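hey so u asked for the seq, here:
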Amino acid sequence: MKTFTLGGVHPEGNKLSRGAAIEKFPSPQIAYISLSQHLGVPAKPVVAKDDKVKVGDLIAVGEAFISANIHSSVSGVVDKIDDYIDTSGYKVPTIFIKVEGDEWNESIDRSQDIVRDIKLSSKEIIDKIKEMGVVGLGGATFPTHVKFMLPPGKKAEYLIINAVECEPYLTSDHRILLEKPDEVLIGTEILRRALNVDKAYIGIENNKQDAIALLTEKAADYEHIEVVALKVKYPQGAEKQLIKAITGREVPSGKLPIDVGCVVNNSGSTFAVYEAVQKNKPLFERVVTVTGKTVGKPSNYLVRIGTSCSQLIASVDVDLSQIGKIISGGPMMGKTLVSTDVPVTKGTSGILLMHTGESSRSLIHNCIRCAKCVQACPMGLEPYLLSAASKNEMWDKAEKAHIMDCIECGCCQFTCPSYRPLLDYLRVGKRKVGQIIRNRAK
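ran it, structure tokens below
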């Protein structure tokens, strides 16, 4: 069974919602649509107070190279453009839309018919992905069109679709594979043509045997697409680890997947690409897993962007007095919500409600020099050293020890017997060192 070779851990899967079919979640009464829900520069609004909008209308333009268009997820009237809290805990520019009905932009194909014939050229595909505001839905929210605009002198050999979903609890990608397999395969073929490569792989972890069997059967009709079953091991879904597992190639320190001839795209994003190119549908809704061990109804919802997380939480039968922490994403890489009023964004893969006993941190002890964090690190780093350098603001030392190679997977903290907050310090150090590097380049 294929996997990466360095580090990794085996947290309990807790895929409690894997059997829950995707349900359409009701539209909110007010949509809070953030202008900073993608990696890069915030989008610039092209609507103003009292403007009427339909579902799918362009409301903000990503003008910078790394940015993304934003479309209305609802129909109604723009109430205001003001700051509003997001999952980071900070207030960011947000478009407030009062919902009136559910009128869609007429250019969107709302039929259930599967469109298999791909008519666009490589450049036209990339332009359409950009126009429709598609970003990475695995968490990073990197604008998808930028990933497929290869730098001069770079050539892609392989397209890899990341359907691993190794993060515990989350099942949104798994449900998309089971319920939209044809669309995912067509989306894969669209991206393969956009890159002009001969081979595309769809990597799926071995704990999703139903998805592996279904996609393998249907991929038989696609000459250039192969489904690859992968060993269950976290963080199998990280880009560099996935590339190593499938192709055997290693992305060098400081380099990108394209430097070894690979481009990786999330399976949920691949479905969004199908809808963008074949249905002219912008990315204004996504599948969100709402789950937890004390949740009475773990669910996978198709949610309009801008819906308040509090509405999702209220729908799953949970006693909030027993909940100690609410996380956007999964337990390994997710971020704790400071408020349930934050809106769903393009990057909201899940909402995890952890009961008090499960979410409580253990008493921190001194490092015992066991090196378990080093053994677990899939990037070959020394987390104990990097966390100490970050804690003591030794930024030069942290940079020389390759803190920017950290993928923030949390393996180090998960395996630490002294319960040290290694990931917390690594995140702080990465932000600071990254800022220093950017200032140096000016």
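The chain is about 30% helix and 20% strand. Residues 372-441 form one domain.
lmk if thats what u needed
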